[in-house]
Amino acid sequence: MTKIRTAVIGAGYMGKFHAEKFAASSNAELVAVIDADASRAREVAAPKGASGTTDYAPWLGKIDAACVAVPTNLHFQVVKDCLQAGVHVLVEKPLSRTLEEADALLELAHAKSLVLQVGHLQRFNPAFQALAAQGGRPLFIDIERLAPFKARAADVDVVLDLMIHDLDLVLALAKAPIEQVSASGFRVLTDAIDIANARIEFADGCIASVSASRVSQSPVRKLRVFRHDAYVSADLQEQRLRHVSKGGEGIVESEQAFERADELRAQAEAFLRAVRAGSVPLVSGEQGRQALALALQVGRLVEERLARHEA
Predict the structure, then answer these.
(1) How does DSSP assign the chain, residue by residue?
(2) Is the pLDDT of residue 151 over 80?
(3) Can you name the CATH fold of 122-263+295-310?
(4) CATH class of 4-114
(5) What is the pLDDT of residue 188?
(6) Which of 52, 159, 181, 216 could form an S-S bond across to 299 if both were Cys, CB 3.0 to 4.6 Å?
(7) Average pLDDT over all residues of the chain
(8) pLDDT, tens digit, for every residue of 90-106?
């Protein structure tokens, strides 16, 4: 079958990895890498036999799909231009800066019958996928994500930088409507929120506690899900599960390890399959919008709390 002509727009830290995955895919032809820095675009593109350039506009009539990995403040304009030109889009999270922008992109993608996928990478973690496949109503979800400080992500706060990944996971596990959200957080190394915690209460009684820090010494990605008579602990960093349940003869414990998966490659291939089939991707634009809405609410609550205490 004809390969899907693909461009990567934004050749920064994540963009260069996206370019590697699309260049290596048997389902895609990486035709261009586009970045405001011409030398960086050429540096990423050249080893893959693609063109490196600074302007994506001339390519919009020559590609079928685009991976958008530009700074968050540019997401809306770049994704909009791609969709208007009939180009399917995989965009890094968050989908956009505001819900108004997100809604406009969703409406445009729907009107043109295009795939709009959002890069919530942890959905492709095999440990999370195995956990989610177990089903059952969660009673309590506890997620902790810690990361060392990286200046490249300082254009957004920790909620939109890191926590939004786990808010997306919570929404994927707890499917009931949200009833109440409370949140707290602090500025540490930047003028934005660097550490935050959110408590989310759902209509079915499930409660989620989500913590994120980008000022920690070592990376941690832990997820615990408690259900009636059992709980599962997931180490998303190591892609491992630990099961604890109540059996006939007492407590039963087991561990489940997974072959190390390339989540970014899995995400790229899922996007290409959705483009090929014209199907809804694993992380749709609508789901990206839901995660963004919750993240913006958490961020607003943190800022309101800080304003009360800093006044």
Answers:
(1) -PPEEEEEE--SHHHHHHHHHHHH-TTEEEEEEE-SSHHHHHHHHGGGT-EEES-SGGGTTT-SEEEE-S-GGGHHHHHHHHHHTT-EEEEESSS-SSHHHHHHHHHHHHHTT--EEEE-GGGG-HHHHHHHHT----SEEEEEEE----GGGTTS-HIIIIIHHHHHHHHHH--SPEEEEEEEEE-SSSSS--EEEEEEEETTS-EEEEEEESS-SS-EEEEEEEETTEEEEEETTTTEEEEEEEETTEEEEEEEE-----HHHHHHHHHHHHHHHT---SSBHHHHHHHHHHHHHHHHHHHHHHHHHH-
(2) no
(3) Dihydrodipicolinate Reductase; domain 2 (3.30.360)
(4) alpha beta
(5) 92
(6) 159
(7) 94
(8) 999 999 999 999 999 99
